[in-house]
Fold:
Amino acid sequence: VGLTVKEASDRYANFMRNPAPSGPNVCPRCWTFKKPERTHCYSCDWIVKSPNHHCDIVVPITYSVDGEQMHTELAGYKNALAADVRRHHLVGITAVLWRHLQAHEPCVASAVGVESFPVVTTVPSKTVAADDSRGQLRRMVGNWCRHTKKRYRRALRPTDRSTGEREFESDRYEADAGDVSGRAVLLIDDTWTTGVSAEAAAHALKQAGATHVACVPIGRHVHRVVKDDDRNGKLLDKLPSRFDWDACAVGPH
Ligand SMILES: [Zn+2]
Ligand SMILES: [Zn+2]
Structure:
């Protein structure tokens, strides 16, 4: 007996938080927190200066606060030791993605100026070996989430030219032009930390001819305390404590 998407996702409202409304404390690119005197957060600062950034928009579903429940879920669906625990998290996170995209994918599309996304793909792992052995995100978007399943293509592969640095590498991935050329692509990732993986993925998609790339990470990773500064935690605590499935980060309905 299968759970409905609503049943499987409802409990997440207790610990997910909607992206903060735009303002002087919020990064206009990735929705994490920033100092008011900066235009972007620390991670996005260099991405926006680089000519190689290629996500046309980034719209995380929620925050993944380091060490808290959503972080546990997003790590657990891949890394939990017990298969039934991984599966439990995978079922739940799939339902979160499905429910969110059903409501808000049209908003993301209109925010980048397209009717729809004919292709959906996922950000690969850094290396070929890791990408082949870790198929959980592909299974989520390409098999389990019926909202995306039919449009899913495994369009991206690691090149194995990554040096493993946590920096943007334009040749980290390559994309199959047959999958994406001339099409708008919805790019899904589980967690956005610095954005360098998703940006490299978007770069490869554009090189292969994708017309638009919109990235929807499930969680925007954020630390409550950075170098003894707890302003992120304070800003998080100002957000409504219960997730609103109808609230839209990119526009009114
Ligand atoms: Zn940012
Ligand atoms: Zn919306």
